[in-house]
Design brief:
Blueprint: H1 24-47, H2 53-75
Helix pairs in contact: 1-2
Length: 76
C-alpha cells in the first residue's frame, strides 16, 4: 500500500490522499513543510523533549508554513 504522505509524481500533496494539480509554489511549500517536520522530529530525538526551545521554535515555524499552505490552498 502506498503511503499517502509522499508525492511520487508531482500531482499528490504529501499529506493528503487526494490527487490533484498543484502549482510549483504549493509544491515548494509542501517540500518546506516536510523538511521542517523532519527537522522537528530530529530535534525531538536529540532533545528528548517536546518542550525544548529548539523543538518549539521549529514547531512554530511549521505551524506558520502549514497555515500559509492552507490559506493558499483554499484560494485556489
Amino acid at each position: 500500500m502506498k503511503n499517502a504522505l509522499f508525492r511520487e509524481d508531482g500531482m499528490m500533496p504529501k499529506w493528503s490522499g487526494k490527487t490533484r494539480n498543484v502549482s510549483s509554489e504549493l509544491l515548494a511549500l509542501e517540500d518546506e513543510i516536510c523538511i521542517l517536520r523532519k527537522q522537528m522530529e530530529q530535534m525531538f530525538q536529540e532533545e528528548q523533549s517536546f518542550t525544548a526551545e529548539k523543538v518549539i521554535e521549529i514547531s512554530r515555524l511549521l505551524d506558520v508554513k502549514i497555515n500559509e499552505y492552507m490559506k493558499s490552498h483554499v484560494k485556489k
